[in-house]
# Entry
Amino acid sequence: AATWKGDADSRPGFIAGRLAVQRAMDERTITSYNVYWSNSSTSRGPLVGTIPAIGFHGPRCTGPSCPLINMTEIAGGFRMERSNYTNHEMAVVAASGPGVVKITRFDTEAFFDILKVGRETFHGKLAVPREIP
# Structure
């Protein structure tokens, strides 16, 4: 999806403004996004330019416990929740960056149950909220 925030340049033949593009959830098969000129009377006009894909992919979960994790898309990111977990659960969530992981609730058994984010490891009780770049 794309949004355009109007023409900020009033000179004839020039346009300026902000174009925001929401990337696909998985860019493995995408090389670029094409930007076309159009107006209210045409569905698609000439090609204005392209925006290269960067290999982005949203969160992907692997492991036997993935079906137990509630993942929802929220404005600007994703929310993952799992409470009342049991023994021997395991899941790995991978995503491309840059990004920030924000922990809003955390309570595990010290040393036995862990959360790894990048190079940091968390277990037990954790002061929240906490952001990890």
